[in-house]
Amino acid sequence: MKKRWMTAIALSLGMSTLFATGQSEQESSTGEWKPKQPITIMNHVAVGGAMDLYSRKWVEIAGKYSDATFVVDNNSGAGGLTAGEWVLGQDADGYTVFALAPTYLDAVIQSELPCKEYVDGFVYIYNLMADPYCVLVPINPAGGNPKFDTFQELVEWAKKGNTVTLSEPNYGAKYIDAVQVFQAVGIDFHAISYESAKKNFAALLGGQTVASVGNPGDTKKYAVKALAVGNRERVKGLEDVPTYSELGYDPALNDISMWRGYAVKKGTPQGMITWFQDLCDKVSADPAWIEYMNGNMISVLTDKTEAFTKTVTDEVDSTIAVLKSVGQISEGYSR
């Protein structure tokens, strides 16, 4: 793990550091939980990864509402398992928060690890966002691949007997969504796994594949366009892209997204959880946070323990079912 340095001054996002929002607080005379030492937010991704950037922005804005000190750290590897195992190994005292996404759950399931330990060992305290999945195609296809202007054109092309080759990184969360979407739509596809997003999109733009499942923000990074998006309403910045329900497909497809949120080890004091959730509410309602999320084409969520736990449970169940259906995990594995 990288050595963590503590500072009371927020450093630039481009540096591998911590963010501190002020001096630590003492216990309140009323008995309300307040941190007496810095709180570490452990990211499951490397510096510069999506959840890392969002955590740093969260800490920056949280400084408006709390004098608590937060340390943003990173422990990437094994799809998030390295960070998850580290958090589970810490004391459940409220001073360690796990910043995670579905990729962590995918890694647990693909490794066929016990969910009772690696999933149920956490309390899922706040789901910050929904980063919708969308079907992406090149703006200018290469390799003789057809050009699609609508999702229906892709579906009709596939139903004529053509194979949709789909590039996806590491058979992870986006691959899971691809299986769910294309099974619901009624077309087959052949997935090719790439070890990184950059290689994934290089293959797509180079003509090795026809389409990919990604996020709206990918349309700002690469020469791709979205044909359909899984969201309850059209995404800001992609107002011309229909949702699956608008296209006549199962509305449940609109609820599958790349969520990102915070969890703590089971046994963490409820007072800390309540305190942290209240702070999350303030950050989520802050105009700067909303503007930042909108700028990244992400929906702001404010799901606390009950709703977030259901999201995680549904994610685990669907991932197990999908990976069994394509032979990626053994039939005997269960939650």
Q: What does this protein structure show overall?
A:
35% of the residues lie in helices and 20% in strands. The chain has helices spanning 50-62, 81-88, 102-110, 115-118, 151-159, 173-185, 197-206, 218-221, 270-285, 287-295, 305-325; strands spanning 39-43, 70-74, 96-100, 122-132, 134-138, 164-169, 189-194, 211-214, 224-229, 257-265, 299-303. Strands 2-1-3-10-4-11 form a six-stranded mixed sheet, sandwiched between helices. Strands 7-6-8-5-9 form a five-stranded mixed sheet, with helices on both faces. Helix 6 (173-185) links the parallel strand 6 (164-169) and strand 7. Helix 3 (102-110) crosses helix 11 (305-325). 44% of the residues are buried.
Secondary-structure blueprint of this entry?
Elements: E1 39-43, H1 50-62, E2 70-74, H2 81-88, E3 96-100, H3 102-110, H4 115-118, E4 122-132, E5 134-138, H5 151-159, E6 164-169, H6 173-185, E7 189-194, H7 197-206, E8 211-214, H8 218-221, E9 224-229, E10 257-265, H9 270-285, H10 287-295, E11 299-303, H11 305-325
Parallel strand pairs: 1-2, 1-3, 6-7, 6-8
Antiparallel strand pairs: 3-10, 4-10, 4-11, 5-8, 5-9
Helix pairs in contact: 3-11, 6-11
Q: What strand line-up does the widest sheet have?
A: 2-1-3-10-4-11
Largest sheet, in brief, is: 6 strands, mixed
Strand content: 15-25%
**Radius of gyration, in angstroms, nearest whole number:** 20 Å
Point out poorly predicted stretches: 1-27
> What structural class results from the helix and strand content?
alpha/beta
